[in-house]
Amino acid sequence: MLLKCLMLILAVFAFTGCQTSPSNKSAKQTTPALPHSEIITLSEGDVLKVSFPSSANLDTTQQIRRDGKIFLPLVGDVQAAGETPDELQQNLVKLYAPQISSKEVIVAVESSAFPVYVTGCVIRPGKVSSDKPMTALEAIMEAGGFDYEKANLRNVRVIRLENGVSKNYTLNLKAALNGEEDKPFYLEPSDIVFVPEKFSWF
Questions:
Q1: Contacts of 172 (CB under 8 A, 6+ apart)
Q2: What contacts 111, CB < 8 A, 6 or more positions away?
Q3: Torsion angle of C-alpha atoms 122, 127, 131, 134, degrees rounded to 10
Q4: Which neighbouring-strand residues pair with 161?
Q5: What is the tens place of the pLDDT at every residue in 120-154?
Q6: What is the 3-state secondary structure (H, E, C) of 38-98?
Q7: pTM for the full predicted model
């Protein structure tokens, strides 16, 4: 009798083990959507490839200058920084309308870089450029790191222009350097990272 019970239990396990779990099946059918990428706004340092399908002799690759402009054949300086690639493309179609037969201009971003500025108690203050997201701590390291004899690591400030208004963010980077869990502060183009002196009033 005991042997029959054991055989019955094993048979039940074998049967249920071969079935597909409903939750696994539904998980395969539901694929999370990829997040939409943000609209690219061109900025100083970006390298653009401008192509003219009907006039290949006008094709050019340009880096956006510090004044936010690029120089193009026949039309001269054109504002690029602050525009999206599509907006710049439409503007170029208008500018080149009298010059080319086809109303087609293609603007492609070859590489993207944005500047931030690091000042105060760092080894090499000045402009730092990056072609990928950069935190305030990474920008300071790119500037040679802190001047540890003078730097106040607990009150590092990021100065950012938002909608024409200057805003200040205070960061405690000493905590990050000590290995404490802290959310990274990512910089935006033209942010200023200021490392004050110890015991300063800033």
A1: 153, 154, 155, 156, 182
A2: 46, 47, 131
A3: 40
A4: 166
A5: 999 999 999 887 889 999 999 999 999 999 999 99
A6: CCCCCCCCCEEEEECCCCHHHCEEEECCCCCEEEECCCEEEECCCCCHHHHHHHHHHHHCC
A7: 0.54
